[in-house]
Amino acid sequence: MRFMIIVRANAMSESGALPEASLLEAMGAFHEELAAAGVLLDAMGLQPSSRGFRVRHQGGRATVIDGPFAETKELIAGFTLIQVRDRAEALAWARRYPAPFGPDRDGEIEVRQVFEAEDFPPATRA
């Protein structure tokens, strides 16, 4: 089972400022643990939304909307993709995830299971 650990953005991540060295070290150590356990598939931080864009599909047309985007609570700052045996193992790793903006700052992660090919009817599999 694959799970994505999503780091929710905040004003700090949207400012484009890099995390403090101690936080980068904690995140690096955590991801090294994931790799050593054989569950890490990918992980990365994202540039702020001011450097991004959205493509909105509406009424049969695609419109490009450049960032930044106002609602930081709806944005993500980064993610970690893991492959584990079950939800309980994903939860155990998520509980160990370092505070995403440092121990003295509010932060939130969200964990979502990824759809697998076998989750879809056979006729729709690629």
UniProtKB/TrEMBL annotation:
Taxonomy, superkingdom: Bacteria
Domain annotation YCII-related: ranges: 1-116
Protein name: Dehydrogenase
PANTHER family reported in the protein's UniProt record: BLL7163 PROTEIN, BLL7171 PROTEIN-RELATED
Listed Pfam families: YCII
Family listed: Belongs to the YciI family.
Lineage per the UniProt record: Bacteria, Pseudomonadati, Pseudomonadota, Betaproteobacteria, Burkholderiales
